[in-house]
Structure formats: structure tokens, C-alpha cells
Automatic annotation (TrEMBL):
Coiled coil as UniProt keyword: yes
GO molecular function, one term: sterol binding
GO annotations of cellular component type: cytosol; membrane
Residues covered by region (Disordered): 1-28, 137-157
Organism: Trichodelitschia bisporula
Biased segments, Low complexity type: 143-155
Coiled-coil intervals: 374-401
Secretion signal span: none
Protein family (similarity comment): Belongs to the OSBP family.
Pfam family, one: Oxysterol_BP
UniProt keyword Cytoplasm, yes or no: no
Name of the protein this chain belongs to: Oxysterol-binding protein-like protein
Alphabetically ordered keywords of this record: Coiled coil
Amino acid sequence: MALSKEATGPSIGAASEPSVSVPAVEEKQQDDGSKLKTFLGILRRFIGVSDLAAIRFSLPAQLLEPTPNLEYWNYLDRPETFISIGDSDAPVGRMLGTLRFWFTKDLKYVKGKPCKPYNSTLGEFFRCNWEVDDTSPPLKHPSSASQSSAASIASNKSGTNKVKISFLTEQTSHHPPVSAFFIDCPEKGIIARGYDHLSAKFTGTSIRVTPGSHNFGIFITLQKWDDEQYQLTHPAAHLGGLLRGALSVSVTDACYVTCPKTKLKVILQYLEEGWLGRTQNKVEGIIFTYDPENDTKTKIKEVSDKDVVARIEGAWTDKIYYTLGSQPFAKSSEKHLLIDLNPLFPVPKIVPPMEKQLPNESRRFWQHVTDAILSKQYARATALKQEIEERQRQKAAERKARNTEWQPRFFVGAVTPIGKPDLTKEGEEVLKGLHRDDFTLPESGELGA
């Protein structure tokens, strides 16, 4: 899990060389155990601090993953599950499709190790496309057609052309660290948006990561279903294994998916560690009818069986199943596979070529730091990173002296009270350009670093 929900960084021009003069000497790389010991030593200074994420402490380059955080932090590890959310003609089917997407959105944590990307700088942005086959199989629901009909639908979908999904994210605030994102798939009539903002606390043995005050989850809108909207909230997670030298992510919290228009709600409960502390990664949940005007139920046991329309159970790192109806999951005679994560890996992004990227676009912005880390020149990488951090402080001081506030370029305002960012005209044009594979974009009038 990324320890900071920010991303890539500096406005170093692609052709300009940074001013820092550090010998390009290859240094001995630390093994994972040594890295963790160093990391733990730094963290111990922050025991008792209420919000670790707000401090934005600087780590030496050898402890960082050479990846911009705005690029790293996205929810489309498997875009084909996202574009299929609105395929069903039944509300229960669309909610099941939303859950299938939910369990694939952070596949990077299932398949890879937790890491610490670069902290984003103010005004830094990242954009990309995905192109995928629209082949997610139909999900059975109470009003489903016959299996043969469902198979026919799947067969027809497998013959379609690639579907394009476009993604834009920008660091809109530095204190607190907040980034806005927008996902768009015009062909399937589906968008998603939200703010990424984390709060983190170090307990001495693990780091507890929770959504920050500006993070209300992911908001998905199905434009072809009369703008049906789904809100998906994030659960708290723990980054453990610091003492034994093997980082791992565990989730022991509840999260919710709500759709006021269809009056369907999901409660997902991530279960605690099992016998003798062995992490089971279990999750269970229900889909039930609710009153959007009186939404008070937050625990599965609070929901009456008569309101339950489906049940969910499985391991969020393995396979997730669902049953239809209110009958207890264990007693149901027919269990359907929602998603099997075992054969799945994150899908590669299509990113603008470096010569088309702006100086404050994530990969280009951090290019010199990334090159230094990859060539094991850690002192040079750390010096370059510190230069970026100092430049950001100087820019903030200049704005304060002018009594001006930072204005994001692609999103309206740094945050909103409802957690749903709107695009500026320039933001809309960026997405239109991505749809056309046109990456031409004027440079930003003002840089945050």
C-alpha cells in the first residue's frame, strides 16, 4: 500500500539538467530487510503523531519506489471490470458489477509488495489511457435470462473492438495533501471521480491508514442508466510486518456502496486475523434494499433478512462468490463466482510519449530522480528530490507574499464539501484529447514546484 496518496513531482524540464552537483556514483543497494530497518527507525520518531500523512516527512531516495504517486494511485488495475458495471439490465446486476470492479481496483496490493512512491507536488498531474477488450462475463441475477442467452451475450462482447478508458489526476492541495481524479469511458457511458486524501498513524508496530477528511470515496455515474450514481467508500487498512521485515497489507474494517436511485446498498465487512494471528483476508457482505432518506444501517447484523437480495463471501486476495436471495450464504445451494483474482495482474497504461509531456507531468517531472534511483545513484537521487522539495517551499512562500491561493488547472477548486470534483474547461479538453490520442497541451502558466 502506498504510504502517501500523492504522486509524481517536479517541474524539471525534459531537456534541462538539474542544478544539483552530485557525483554519478553507483552505490550499494540495500536489501529489503535493511530498507525496512531504516524506514522503521525514521517512523519511530513519529509515534503518537495524530496524522503521519499530513507531516510529509522526506525519505532518502533508496527507500522510495521509483514511481510517481499520481501514476501509482489509480483504481483501474483491471479496467475491463470498470467498463462492464452498467452492462446488466437489472439494478442487482449493476450492483454486482460494481462489486466486481471493487475487488479488482487495488490488485497491485494483491500481486505486489507495498511501496512508497514519490510525494506529489502541487499542480503535478498525470494522464493516461487504457484500451481493453469488453469481455467481462455477465453476472447472474434474479431476472437473468437463461444461461444460453448469457453465453450468447459473452460471445458477442468478445468480438468487439478495444474500449478506451481515459484517466486524469492532479495534485490540487499540498496542505493537506489532496489529489483529484476523473475517469471517463464515453463508449460505455461511465465515469468515476473523487479525491484521494489519506490519514495515517504509526502505532509502533504498524501503520493504520484511513481516508482523509476530503476523501468520500469513489463516485461512479452510469450515464446510460439516467445518471445512476454509486458511492464506494474506502475501509481502513493496516501496513504491518515492520518488525519482522516483511511488509503486508491487512484490512479489518467495513466499507459501503450505495445507489440512491435503485435503493440498493452494500455492506462489506473485512474480517480480522484468524486463529493464531494468521491473516485470512476474508470478506463477507450483503446487498440489501435501503431508504436513502434514512440510511442508518452500518453492520450486517442490523439488516433484516427480508431486505437482503444477495450475499457476498470469499477472500479479497483470492476468489469472491455471491449468492442470490436472503438465505444464509452457507445454506445456499447455488454459489456464483464474482471474481477470481488469481490469474489477474494490473493492465499496463498507455502514457503520452515523454516529448509530449509537460514539465509538471508526473513521469517527466520525476525523470531525473527516477533515472538516478534506477542507476543506483542514491545520493544524487536524494539531492534531486530535496531540490524539488525546496523549490515547492519557495513557490509557496512567493504565493503567500503575494497573498494568492493556488488554483488547480484541471479541476474546479482544491476540494469540495461533497468529495466529487468537477473538471475545468481545460480538464474537459485534456480528456477529449486523450480519447483522440492527441496529447498536445500548452504548458501550465504557473508551477507549484
